[in-house]
Amino acid sequence: MEPSTFDQYYLRFYGLVPVMAVIAYGFTLAANKLNGIKKLGAVLIICAAIAVLGNCIYTEDWYTKAENRNKVPQDVVTICDLFADYEGDSIRIMAPQDIAVYLRQMESRFSMPYSRYIPDEAYELTNLQPEPQLVVDYAKENDVDYVVVSAIDSVLNTYLNYGFTLYGRTANYAVLQPNDPQWLLTEYEDKSGDQGLAYTLENMNDGTLILIDGGNAGNEQQMRDVIMEKGGVVDAWILTHYHKDHIDAFNAIYENPQGIKINNLYVTPLEADVFYSLNLQEWDDVDTFEKFQEITEGAENITKVQRDDVLEFSDGLKITFLNACDDVVLNADGHEDIPNNDSLVFKIETASRSALICADAHSKYIADYLVKTYGDKLKSDILQCGHHGNNSMPTETGFYEAVSPEVAIFDGPDWLILSPDYTAGALAAYLKDLGARIIWFNTAPNVFGF
Questions:
Q1: What is the DSSP letter of 16?
Q2: With contact defined as beta carbons under 8 Å apart, do 239 and 262 qualify?
Q3: Model confidence at 115, in pLDDT bands (50, 70, 90)?
Q4: Is position 66 within any domain?
Q5: Residue 156 and residue 266 share a domain
Q6: What is the pairing mode between strands 236-239 and 265-267?
Q7: Are strands 310-312 and 318-323 parallel, antiparallel or unpaired?
Q8: Residues 255, 264: Cα–Cα separation, whole Å
Q9: Rg of the chain on CA atoms, in Å
Q10: Residue 411 to residues 220, 319, 427, 444: CA-CA distances in angstroms?
Q11: What is this structure's pTM?
Q12: Which residue in 43, 47, 19 sits closest to 33, CA to CA?
């Protein structure tokens, strides 16, 4: 196990100096017992031994030159500098064990909720798979305003996704302000191994559960497990459109609920006669559409969403629909890929955060329409990229600049995102240049706090 920063300094101060003094004294006593050429030979051997031993010791990772005149890790100095202009007599902060002791020494205003005995929650700060809610609960209970976490991408991004605010960072750590979310939006990897779209939106206070699509048939069991873990009741299930990588899991669950209750369905209003009149492609999943029509025939809990419809939920959550199957889509030039472009596009928002879900809407016509019609209303902290980011809305439309996301989500596995055979990688690079963090299945489930 790699020694901690504290261990390194402890070994330097309390280990090396006494040991080397004892060794040197022992060598001197041994040499004094010899005379003449033997004494000279012994001295040469001792000098060689000291050189070899010294090289072995002083090149160890834990014996390093102090990074600054304060003899503390440079991360500590940088963190203190971040609070140089902080107005207040006390700064409530929690930090990993390696630097907590030094922060107290360097800045008297730092007040920590623990001393020598570090609570389990503090170890989450450097856990490679952290649970942010544990840190949130501990911070609330102990009036902590700032937390210091590892700046490793996988760790830091987990906290940023959860809604923590970046206050500043050092080479190895990031200082964050905690977020106590009311709603959690979770993106799930499709267990079929294919691209797919499956999200839950859960209220942390009253348990309200909203589902978005659900993915391929191979994702059915995961979605069943998720729903049952969250109480078995879906308050609202939003189905963006009728392709198998979006609703085959839903079809299986709706047809055979196995104890799952679905209160309300919200769908794009693509009628059967319109669907069959289209110039359908091999990916347009006639079987999936027909199964949906069959199992929902006569259902009274289905709402066919219209453009600009608004759904409101507890704790200020609002969902506004910006696209649905209507004349705008059906009259598009060339009837361009209607089974995808009729996708429900909607904005999820609370007072503190927002996300734009594009499902599989992807054409230039739709992008131009959204930019022209909604303009600044498209601005969102999180963007779910249309059509899994592959052959998505063209960059020249200005759509991505209008959204200006902090996070861009690609609902696909590595083979889609990283392969030069698809355009998702190029879009990811474009969005990264705009300042967005890129998220896909490789880190799923990805949880976002609202």
A1: I
A2: no
A3: confident
A4: no
A5: no
A6: parallel
A7: antiparallel
A8: 15
A9: 30
A10: 16, 20, 13, 10
A11: 0.85
A12: 43
